[in-house]
Amino acid sequence: MTELVEHGQLFIGGVLADPLGKDVIEVISPHTEEVIGRVPHASTADVDRAVAVARKAFDEGPWPRATLDERIEVVTRIKDAIAVRHEEIARVISSENGSPYSWSVLAQALGAMMVWDAAITVARNFTYEETRDGVLGKIVVRREPVGVVAAVVPWNVPQFVAAAKLAPALLTGCTVVLKPSPESPLDAYLLGEIAREAGLPEGVLSILPADREVSEYLVGHPGIDKVSFTGSVAAGRRVMEVASRNLTRVTLELGGKSAAVVLPDADITTSVPGIVSAAWMNNGQACVAQTRILVPRSRYDEFADAFAAAASALVVGDPLDPATQVGPLVARRQQRRNLDYIRIGQEEGAKILTGGGRPPGLDRGWYVEPTLFGDVDNSMRIAREEIFGPVICLLPYGDETEAVKIANDSDYGLSGSVWTADVEHGIDVARRVRTGTYSVNTFSLDMLGPFGGYKNSGLGREFGPEGYGEFLEHKMIHLPAGYEAPTGVEGPGPDGRPLAHRGRPLRLHRLRPVRPPRLRRLPPRLRPAVPAGRTGDRRQRADPGGGGELPRGGDRHQGAGERGAGVPTGGVSGSASAAKGRFRRPVHGRGFLWPVCGRGFFRSVRGEGFLRLVCGEGFPRPGSGEGFPRLVRGHGFPRPGRGHGFLGRSPATASRRLPSGRSGGTPSRCLSSPGRSRRGRTAR
What we know:
By secondary structure, the chain is an alpha/beta fold. 34% of the residues lie in helices and 15% in strands.
């Protein structure tokens, strides 16, 4: 691309708007070192504006409320437009970052299209809502869009990574502020144009080219609900630190120092070409590049010669030339970084098998020869630190155990591969290497599976249902007892909402009748002592502690309130009854949940559930100023500070009626008179 490309406006909320700042980003060709483009540098004020329109679009706009089919229709148009314009996109990216054009066509453009397509497939098959059998009754679990997303993408594979973040975010109903790298902002304008022509509603997508300072401001913005970041480990740590101030959820895809393990039985004619393409792809500027090659010491010379010959045969040159296999690095700083590591490797005692400097005849441009170091020890810096360029290490090993140990001896864990004649054995090796993505006799990155790293290689996952779910929140809805899904409805529709809501009302099935429970007398050894002179009704005389008889798997309390809610309607007196009879030690070793769901409290067949039981009638509502925690400490259970607390109370103490004005050391002002609620009889 020889002509200068200039953009004077920013893509904010789907429209081109004048920037609020005056700074400009100059895009420099890594091949010619000349300026090939200019775009506005977004300011913090532009970030405020973009986040505001994204927030409004999410809170009030049509995109999150559209059906999944409607969102898929728009996203499909984006995917199709990328497929149509893939050559143009590939040329722009190669001009920006030096990626070889042949690789850009496949990985940068068509690869991005595949990411969009895979996300659509995941979206169609994803479960947005399901009904489960909970401990206390039926529950509905929903997945809902997380909100406004800040997507920060790197310069090495800008469209591929942007698709990994934008596609699931848009399909789930989120709105997005995309922050491309200042080294590669030109292709982002193509994406904005495609999104606008596809019919993406106003406010859903903004694109803000900027440097690290503005990126940090975006990540820490209080209007952002999620940050999805791809970049270096150092930058990822900073992103996590800044986002944590607002407790913003974060997904990080960071660096790697991946190992390709060549087993002794590997075929040299297939393993060497496969590893070379995976090691030097995109000029070595790939986080998943196989930058450590582990070969058996018994075949070291054979493989060293083969890898050196293959690396030296790679064609280095103009990234727009279809014959080029290795192009220039993205910036002068990256060229210096790689040359510095070549010097460090030599100082550490590693041997250069091929390369080691600037390619002859390419005095202009930020080029570094494909370089292979031999006799590398895994303790050397060139084997432990991510160089991010065409500098590869060859490490010998003794046996397979040592090979796996070397592969795992890294601060990273993003990718890797194993090469062997025995595929089953290769799979076994793959299981032993701690890395997020692994390949056997190949190198691949499947967009329908989870992609992410162990250790310093990141947090969370991209691609597949796992990556799709990173842009969703989980909600639990408790259903009333006796409710059944309408006949013929087998799950949620493609918009994530139950099919029963789509054009016809829900039909609630009639509640099943429940029989009064049978009562069971506890064994004498479990009955609490009866205080002298105690009087009461027949039930109290038969079981003074409220624990002599317990409901036997029933649905109502004996003598329930007028609403038939299944609990006594005596307010605090009900809680005192629970304290005396329900929270005794587990009977016959069945644990706490047995008395809660089986006898001490009542099964959730009438929709009350444990939490509603606690706050509904058995205990005062939290809004009354008492709440469950205060009630526990104040109305019949000693304070934890007294040395025994709720769980440490003995059955005898829990079931014994205390004199008026005392309750296990609790001040008398926290007590109500027996049989009465502080807010009346119903205490609702």
